[in-house]
Amino acid sequence: MNTLNDVHIENDKRNAPYLLAASFAGFIQFKGSYCENSVLYWQFSPKNKALELLEQLNTKTDPPIPAQDLFTAIETFWKQVAKTRNGGIRYGGREK
Questions:
Q1: Which of 60, 62, 82, 94 is the most exposed place for a label (fewest CB within 10 A)?
Q2: pLDDT surpassing 50 at residue 5
Q3: Where are the alpha helices (DSSP H) in 1-96?
Q4: In 11-46, which positions are buried (b, 16+ CB within 10 angstroms) versus exposed (e)?
Q5: Sign of the Cα pseudo-torsion (94, 91, 4, 31, in order)
Q6: CA proximity to 72, closest of 11, 8, 25
Q7: Radius of gyration for the alpha carbons in the chain, expressed in angstroms and rounded
Q8: DSSP class of residue 24?
Q9: What is the C-alpha separation between 71 and 92, in angstroms, rounded?
Q10: pLDDT tens per residue, range 63-94
Q11: Each residue of 49-65: pLDDT tens digit?
């Protein structure tokens, strides 16, 4: 059951793309993004798996994530950040 309590919210420029790439590889689910006070937040579920993946990343025991997925996730992250800075994303990820 995915409830708000089971969602990990991330805005770190290193962690968010990593979790997004992990979602491409099927390790976790990307639930969407939103902007609040000019800060972009990314949502992943289940929360415990997101935290486990981040721990693995930080201890360099991370699961194999294809390099192309990671590069795509990094590019997507920075494109969304640029859109947010230009006022193109509001709550719920909807563009103006």
A1: 60
A2: yes
A3: 15-24, 47-58, 67-85
A4: eeeebbbbbbbbbbeebbbbbebbbeeeebbbbbbe
A5: positive
A6: 25
A7: 13
A8: H
A9: 24
A10: 888 999 999 999 999 999 888 888 765 545 44
A11: 999 999 999 998 878 88
Report d(CA 93, CA 28) in Å as an integer: 19
pTM here?
Answer: 0.81
Q: How many domains does the chain have?
A: 1
How far is residue 22 from each of residues 36, 38, 66, 92, measured CA to CA in Å? 24, 25, 9, 21
Q: 62 lies in which domain range?
A: 4-93
- Distance, CA of 38 to CA of 34 (rounded, Å): 10
The pLDDT score that the predictor gives to residue 1 is 44
| Location of structure tokens 């949502």 | 43
